[in-house]
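For the sake of transparency, this paper describes our internal protein records without simplification. Such a record has a labelled line for the sequence and another for the backbone structure tokens. Nothing more is needed to write down the fold, since each code stands for a local backbone conformation. For reference, a complete record is included directly beneath this paragraph.
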Amino acid sequence: MVNRTGYTSKKKKRTPKTSRTEMTNVEKGMIIGVFYCLRNIALVAQIIGRPWTTIKSFLARACERQSLDNLPRPGRSPILRQGQRSTIIRAAKDNRKMTRSDFRDHYAPGVSLSTGNIQLLVPRE
């Protein structure tokens, strides 16, 4: 972007509004193991390096669900997995003459012809 003085400004990357990160399975296992040994949430939080409330809510949730898995996130699940998406992009770059229907039948069977991913990558018929 060029401003009035003629200098270009570089756009900054957006940082997330919160610093939330999903706990790894290793962290979850460490929380349960350390809590089982020490029986003190404050010490577990200090050792793991997570807030006390996070440890407390995780332990309550793990006991209630009897599972360490997170609930699925709301919203529509992705149509294509990352591997399928990479294959589609690679194939579209290699063969730009292939029609969408040929492309779909060969690389992405079962995906709708009107799928935005395929429309963007493959030329129109």
Remarks:
- Helices lie at 25-38, 41-48, 52-65, 82-94, 100-107, 116-121.
